[in-house]
Amino acid sequence: MVAGSLAAFAIMLILDFSIGSSKMSWSSLFHALLEGPIGRQNMDAIVVWDIRLPMTLTSVFVGGSLAAAGLQLQTITNNPLASPYTFGITSSASFGAAISITTGFSIAGQLWLGTSVLAFLFAFLVSIGIYYIGKMRGMSTTTIVLTGIMMNFFFTALQQLLQYRASAEVAQIISSWTFGNLARASWTSVFVSAALMACCSAAFMMWSWRLTALSAGEENAESLGVNVKKLRVSVFFISSMLIAGSVAFIGTVGFVGLIAPHGARLLSGDDQRYLLPLSVLLGAMLMLLSSIVSKLLTVGAVLPVGIVTSLIGVPFLFLLMMRKKD
Amino acid sequence: MLKLNIENIRVKYAERVVLNGISAQFRGGEMTSVIGKNGIGKTTLIKAIAKLIKHSGTVSLTDDKGSVYSASDMAYLPQMSTSDSKLTVFEMVLLGLVKHLRWRVSEEQIEQAAGVLKQLNLLHLSKQPFHQLSGGQKQLVSMARSLVSGPKVLLLDEPASALDIRHQLMVMDLARKYTKQTGAVTIFVEHDLTLAARYSDRMLLLDDAEITAFDTPEQVLRPDVLEKVYRVKVKVEKTSLGSLNVIPIEPL
Known about the structure:
The complex is a heterodimer of chains A (326) and B (252). By secondary structure, chain A is an all-alpha fold.
């Protein structure tokens, strides 16, 4: 199964990299890759190094990050519906981006950077808000979930309000941001999402047995000497960082964080040593597949990937559910 | 011999005092049952001993040589697990070593888990998902998880409740065998007084946040004591096995 998943991942990675609005043969792709990132001269190399690679790699790291965060939100709340999206973290990022777009907020003269930083800040602040409200009520799963749902509705409404009052042109930009678009990928998004995914996954792996114990039930974990409250706080904090870092660059991507962990659980069971890497892999694959489909559906342009993730995600989970009835 | 001393254990939930300065000494190699009415604080007491809830007072575990042990030498088994975990039986048992497990499980840890499963005749279930087991099997696996670390103190919360009589005996026999063989201190909460009497060297009766009686089953299970605490008319008989049978007649 591991070899099969890795092979499927490699095929998707190559396919996503090879498909794009500018048609390129395999040999020109290969030569452009060999030319390297520095001192590139021809158009093919520029397309490969400035557009294709950042898009493909951002897909991989954002998909993996959202899946890892979704898995751990489900584990610490013991709720199968928990995900970056249902917790309102992504909608708060959208709101942050909408403020930035409406006000023209920029950092170092860069509008995209201003949007990314505000999206990150809002996602992060809302996560802290959910955490503190949860902490006031003893970090009970019901409180965390309910607070997340409230935040989702609240920030969706605020973002819609901004969009409603904005000019048609600005409203269009906000709307495009909320769809999640890989066209915004850059080497910055690659490095930030890769670094976040690597560091946060390493922490999750370090706690893999404790998280496995927690998935077997809160009382079970406590009885085994796991400090459940401390584990929940740490995991929630790290998951928030992952989500904020993922959506800050390319916008809201729904469903990956919900569906990839479920798929992985059906394939590997509850042992986090295998469940986490498999979730990350499936999250990355789901993003790559969505990216491929979005490029194929609209020749010459790129359909926002956030729209496609849900369209692909539902039949994907359905197939897995049919495969294993347990 | 191990000695578990609890001194002046006091637990408050909101304004309600659940345990009001409980002090007792438990001996290694002995099984002690904690009995009393619903909601009287039996689970709270063993959770306080396991240091799983906030309490005042002290819990100390020592042996004849003066060695001092900590909470990590204790295993607490919560009331029967309704977990629908998809972990395998083997993984579930390994969780008993959770604080020492690394990503790569050592050979020694694998042998420990396999050893305890073999002792309990559960090795054939190793690869089965936990959620597919029967209630009795789940409880035996949970016991295996508690025993895998070789605890000095075994704290069991209603280990035999919701089990059929065969599994009741299997689980309780297992606890007794472990206690006698290893010289561990075992304390278990039990509602069924007949079952509790059969497996107890001593019984601790809780009422009104304090210890009403802490003695042998013959001394604790006297009709006058039980009628006063449970407000039920009872008849206590000696069985052919030599243990006591408590027959509830009618509520008072």
